[in-house]
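Task: sequence design from structure.
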């Protein structure tokens, strides 16, 4: 009976999370439109606001960054903290807790990362543009889930949970890439200090400390030390999310309570601010011409729109042939639809872009992400309207018994 209640509670928490993600997508669309209008109607104002220097902290600890960088490094920590919490929840009570069920979305996510990167290199080459290779590996769960909901009854319910699990694995891979490839020169002293904060959080857990303020204080120092170490500071937010215990000392669901409290700030404050500060590109004739002739732009577009569905379908088919298990109504057609919508890279793609590129290249990459996100939604919608016999995944596999 207790197990049944726990399962029902977990499902209710997932439903709430998906509903907030879908509502967040609407806010993100508005934020993106605001960024584009602002950047095109008052480009100087847009540039002046987000490039303004902001200094915080006492003299010896002072941080001096542009406002857009503060949004990406500090405000987005809330988003990555929620990602860490969701990964932890999936590992403890979600699909990733069952190895056979987890095998399919894990393999699908890996395929959806590798194939876009391969296509990107084939189109963009190995010159200066190659620095953007990690951009088309991302999936935006908010936009993709909202698109799935808009498609309504044409898509099985299991598609939403499959997309959520796949996107979480995708986030894990993206976080690993950010940590390994987009850090600066690493300072061992600051890195050890950051590790000490993680150990401090573990000590608080073992001491069964129930108050959140000590964790927040240790987490703030962890963010600062990670930044000083030359590693992207949002990695510390993910780490502290993963360290969060599922239950508090009184046996209450701490993990779910934290997600319930922090996720709205991530979905309706952090992400929209990030979209406004990073999605603004000037769409004049010169910019559009530059994008149309850019192998960087098309490498990102093809990587997301073509590479994502192909890679996800191939990965899922391989896992199912190897014994991976899925729910009954998760057909090859449904996986193809999910793969198409996973091409909506947006948030994480825009997050990675300025870490790898700058100037005109960054503008071309941003344009590629926006175009790919629109095309991915259109492609997913078209596939839902095709007869089932015409909308099957590559290398369609027999359903497991």
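Answer:
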């Amino acid at each position: 009976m207790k197990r049944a209640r726990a399962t029902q509670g977990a499902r209710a928490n997932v439903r709430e999370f998906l509903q907030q993600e879908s509502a967040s997508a609407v806010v993100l669309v508005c934020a993106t439109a605001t960024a584009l209008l602002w950047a095109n109607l008052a480009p100087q104002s847009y540039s002046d606001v987000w490039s303004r220097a902001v200094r915080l902290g006492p003299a010896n600890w002072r941080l001096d960054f542009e406002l857009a960088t503060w949004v990406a490094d500090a405000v987005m920590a809330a988003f990555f903290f929620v990602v860490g919490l969701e990964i932890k929840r999936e590992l403890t009570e979600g699909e990733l807790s069952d190895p056979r069920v987890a095998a399919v979305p894990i393999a699908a996510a890996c395929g959806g990362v590798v194939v876009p990167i391969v296509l990107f290199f084939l189109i963009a080459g190995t010159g200066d543009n190659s620095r953007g290779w990690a951009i088309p590996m991302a999936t935006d769960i908010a936009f993709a889930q909202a698109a799935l909901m808009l498609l309504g009854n044409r898509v099985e319910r299991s598609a939403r949970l499959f997309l959520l699990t796949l996107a979480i694995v995708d986030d894990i891979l993206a976080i690993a890439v950010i940590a390994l490839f987009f850090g600066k020169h690493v300072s061992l002293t600051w890195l050890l200090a950051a590790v000490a904060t993680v150990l401090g959080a573990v000590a608080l857990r073992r001491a069964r400390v129930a108050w959140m303020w000590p964790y927040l204080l240790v987490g703030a120092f962890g963010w600062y030390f990670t930044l000083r170490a030359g590693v992207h500071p949002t990695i510390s937010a993910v780490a502290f999310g993963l360290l969060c215990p599922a239950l508090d000392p009184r046996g209450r669901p701490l993990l779910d309570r934290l997600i319930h409290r922090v996720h709205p700030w991530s979905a309706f404050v952090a992400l929209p601010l990030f979209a406004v500060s990073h999605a603004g590109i000037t769409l004049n004739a010169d910019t559009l011409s530059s994008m149309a002739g850019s192998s960087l732009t098309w490498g990102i577009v093809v990587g997301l729109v073509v590479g994502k569905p192909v890679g996800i379908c191939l990965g899922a088919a391989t896992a199912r042939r190897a014994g991976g298990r899925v729910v009954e109504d998760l057909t090859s057609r449904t996986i193809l639809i999910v793969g198409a919508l996973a091409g909506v890279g947006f948030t994480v793609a825009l997050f990675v872009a300025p870490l790898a590129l700058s100037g005109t290249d960054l503008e071309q990459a941003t344009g590629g992400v926006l175009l790919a996100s629109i095309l991915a939604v259109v492609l997913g919608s078209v596939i839902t309207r095709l007869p089932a016999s015409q909308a099957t995944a590559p290398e369609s596999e027999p359903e497991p018994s």
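The longest strand covers residues 53-56.
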